[in-house]
Amino acid sequence: MLQESNINLSIIVPVYNEELYLSNLFKDIKTYFNEKNIEIIFVNDGSFDSSKNILEDFKKQEYVFDLKLINLKKNKGKGYAVKKGLEICSGNYILLQDADLELDIKDSKEIYEIIKNDEKIQCIFGSRYLSGKLKKHSYFFNEIIGKFNTLLFNLFFGQSLTDVHCGLKIFHRDVYNKIKLSFNDFGLEIDIASQIIKHNFYIYEVGVSYFSRTVRDGKKITWIDGIKSYYYLFKVRFIDNSLSTLISIICSSMYMSFAGTYFGMGLGKTIFIILFFLIGLIIGLHTKIISTLIIFLLIYVGSFFGKGQGQALSVLVFFILALFIVKKIRKFNNNKKFSSLF
Fold it and tell me: CB atoms < 10 A from the CB of 15, how many?
């Protein structure tokens, strides 16, 4: 059900040194979103070019939507700027739009029309890798990293998204009310996606056009941001969890590392330990304390059977048996009081 508000859509646009693109951006916004029930929130994130003056001049133009402007004295990052915009927005739907014109405002209008006409859809992400829309990619390495990060995100969260880093997103206010953003820079995209999924909202995707900028054109994301994204992925998946889940993750990664010691020799054994450790991290996300203890106990029992490769096979068999038993227990455990333990 929609919230009681005269504003149906809030568009939040973080801005940092975008003097070359703001005029065309505002022209496109007036073309596609010039309606009374829409508010546009520009957040000037400490720009030191003429962006602030250009944004101030927008107030003198003719339009029917509600225009709001936030000026931050210092550059705090895209995530921080978006959070400041979210604090004052009042729309039933919230759309995040970059200011650099890499993404077409026409696509923003398209996903808005889709979500407002289907009450079952509460969240849509744009995807630069779907559909046959016009695209221009400037950097091969950036595209590969973006796709690889999305693959990792899907593995960690059991999703099938195609572009977790796309800056064009729209979601219902009910979604925003559930999430609490914590990253201040380009980790925003991972932050939003992970929290939406953790609160059991389904993410739909729509293909969008993409016109990549070069560094000379003003592109700001760097290889450092790419490296930091791996930390953000690890944090939102394996650290930002409940205490019971954290305990399960620690225990499962330890006993799976123990299981890995029975496979291979020398360097091969080290590789197996690392591989089993990663498997343990994933298992820990989907099991709780008692389930974790059952799996460890059966792996330990399996280590007493056979020698050499026979012992490794025994450990593997008992591990599979443990997963089967835990699955059956969880299926028949209908008591909500104890469900958190399994």
Answer: 28
Q: Residue 189 corresponds to which tokens in the numbers above? A: 């995209």
| Residues of the chain with confidence (pLDDT) below 70 | 1-5, 137-140, 213-215, 217-220, 222-223, 333-342
pLDDT computed for residue 282 by the predictor:
85
Q: What CATH code would you report for 9-239? A: 3.90.550.10
Distance CA 71, CA 93 (A): 23
Query: Which neighbouring-strand residues pair with 211?
Result: 136
Report CA 11 to chain centroid distance, whole Å.
19
Q: What is the DSSP letter of 118?
A: -
- With the C-alpha atoms ordered 197, 169, 129, 76, is the resulting torsion angle positive or negative? negative
339 contacts 333 by C-beta, under 8 angstroms = yes
Taking only the tens place, the pLDDT of each residue in 212-254 is 766 676 666 766 777 788 888 888 888 888 887 888 888 889 8
**Strands annotated E in 261-333:** none
Q: How far apart are CA 289 and CA 341, in angstroms?
A: 5
Burial 303-315 (b: 16+ CB within 10 A, else e): beeeeeeebbebb
